[in-house]
Amino acid sequence: MRQLAVVMIILNINYGRLDCSYTMDIDEPHTYTPPKHYYQTSSFDENDISDDASKSPLNRGPYFDISASRNVTALVGNTAYLNCRVRNLGNRTVSWIRHRDLHLLTVGKATYTSDQRYQSVHNPQLDDWSLKVLYPQQRDSGVYECQISTTPPVGYSMTLSVVEPVTSIVGGPDLYIDTGSTVNLTCIVQYLPEPPPLIQWTHNGVEINYDSPRGGVSVITEKGDITTSYLLIQRARSSDSGKYTCLPSMANPTTVHVHVLNEEE
């Protein structure tokens, strides 16, 4: 056999060519499947986190700490923070993307948009990469994604809701009261950074005087994350009908129309 192989090579050389036949293994396209403990906006299920993965965090590669809230509410004009906590980041980078227009906002600590209200804030002690939004407006509400530069990238989406202070009167815009009964108007103020220092009530555009000879008129205000002011008018009479307005400082006023009815009405 060895002699035959030599003869075939010599024959091929004599004909001016050397034939070599071999096969090459071509790798299949590389597909990355992140572990179950990676958060993917399209298919992540917190119930899929296995106990084994949680016991060996150092072997996990980059992953999101999903303990942070995915829903953030901010007041118009008050700085908002979307907090993204990434463990075992290594040499990967963290980016923030706005879903509304798929706009890249930040990469690492750099801002990649002309809107300089968006900034990346890194806290290395907590492994936090927060998106800071200065002077947020209601149009900034929507879904934002914190993304790790793995192959393919994995992301953690969060929803920002930018709200304005809201003032409302329970039961409005019209209330019907029987003569002689008690008028109880409840004004609720929400979404203020702190309770309003003052809430005024007016009747037909005139500030209510609680020390007037009419008597039987009082206000009780409870302050907190939601501030509530109660206007109480004892022994309602027809002259108490009209437009009542709740005017909290630092928030918009709201109005209700009170109709005091006699038995015939």
UniProtKB/TrEMBL annotation:
Output the Gene Ontology cellular-component terms. neuron projection membrane
Which PROSITE patterns does this chain map to? IG_LIKE
Question: What Gene3D superfamilies does its record include?
Answer: Immunoglobulins
Tell me the Gene Ontology biological-process terms attached to this UniProt entry.
synapse organization
List residues of the Ig-like domain: 62-161, 165-257
**A Pfam family in this protein?**
Ig_3
Which SUPFAM superfamilies does UniProt cross-reference here?
A: Immunoglobulin
Quote the protein name from its UniProt record: Ig-like domain-containing protein
